[in-house]
Amino acid sequence: MKRIVEIVPARPGWYARWRLEPGGTRCYPVSLWALLEEADGTGREVIGVDCVGQWPGADDNEAGGVFVRYLFQTPDSGAPEDAEPPSGAPQRATGPRLQAVPAP
């Protein structure tokens, strides 16, 4: 089981791209970055949690969505073509709350 070691807010311009079924993609702005590690302190990885509360590997991500990649676009260049407008993004009603776990 993995634990959260650290959480930091994401800077503007980071997006998580998801492939949708039956086709196409959608990007959501990344809200925060979380550093995860295995319980024994190995296997560290950084994941981004997007503005609708999805992250790669979560059990309750949007149905039919598969994580593709993170991308960065400078804020002055605008959002990606497939970005979901912030006001139209559905918000997660339930799900786990992310909390940092202090390192031993």
Fold and architecture overview:
The two termini are 16 Å apart. Strands 1, 2, 3, 4 and 5 form a five-stranded antiparallel beta sheet that branches. It is built from no helices and five strands. It is an all-beta fold and 104 residues long.
Rounded to an integer in angstroms, the radius of gyration calculated over CA atoms is: 14 Å
Strand content: 35-45%
Helix/strand class: mainly beta
Q: Tell me, rounded to a whole number, the average pLDDT.
A: 83
Main sheet overview: 5 strands, antiparallel
The H-and-E topology, N to C, reads as EEEEE
How are the SSEs ordered, and which strands pair?
Blueprint: E1 2-9, E2 14-20, E3 25-38, E4 45-50, E5 65-72
Antiparallel strand pairs: 1-3, 2-3, 2-5, 3-4
